[in-house]
Amino acid sequence: AYVSKSQAQTQLIETIERVLEKFKFHHNRLVLVVDDSRTVRHLVTQALEEAGFKVITAENGKQALKRIDEQRPDLIISDVEMPEMNGVDLCKTLHADPSLAVIPFVIMSANSDRSMMRRLLYLGAASYLVKPFTMEQIVITVERLLSDHFLILLKEKERLDAERKMMLASITSLIAALEARDPYTKGHS
After folding, report:
1. Element containing residue 28 per DSSP (H, E)
2. For 147-155, which contacts have Cβ atoms below 8 Å and span 24 or more sequence positions?
3. Which of 76, 77, 80, 93 is the most exposed place for a label (fewest CB within 10 A)?
């Protein structure tokens, strides 16, 4: 964050609170970085850890699936071209499993072909970053996706809770109607 000296008295505390809140949000988020290049894995890991994220890595899609079984990430960043299992197959495999399909999946690739981008977005990728990119672009993309994803999950939870309450109220009403009609079954429904 940046606060000029002239604005420090009015904005410094608010800015510090915002940075600390952001750090708390990031501190518990786990990101899986999948790339066959050790250098890319290291640079992306370093940038995300400096932003407050926890990071685990994998060299290819098969290794990534093993890591996901061990520890479920909140977001996955993957290269496309990798040995053993590429990023396209990893994306397809994850989105075939409903419990894993909700994990935001970010593609990073040197391939800037629009048809490839559209294909991966159609397969379920949440974002597509074209190499070369800055580490700040990755951090901003991860922050945005996790914030949006968190809000969507929160709204979905609220919706499911409301549906559950309505369903229970419907069942209770049916039971009351049944017991009012037949005194013999009263208290058994």
Report:
1. none
2. 147/25, 149/74, 149/75, 149/102, 149/104, 150/25, 153/102
3. 93
- Helices 61-70 and 87-96: angle between axes, nearest 10 degrees: 40
Kind and range of the H or E run holding 107: strand 105-109
CA distance 132 to 146: 22
Q: Is the pTM of this model over 0.70?
A: no
The DSSP secondary structure of 117-134, one letter per residue, reads HHHHHHHT-SEEEESS--
Residue 22 CB neighbour total at 10 angstroms: 15
pLDDT digits over 26-79, tens only? Answer: 667 899 999 999 999 999 999 988 888 899 999 998 999 999 999 999 899 999
What backbone torsions phi and psi does residue 76 show, to the nearest 5 degrees?
-125, 130
Are 151 and 132 in contact by the 8 Å Cβ rule? The answer is no
Burial of 142 (0-12, 13-18, 19+ CB in 10 A): buried
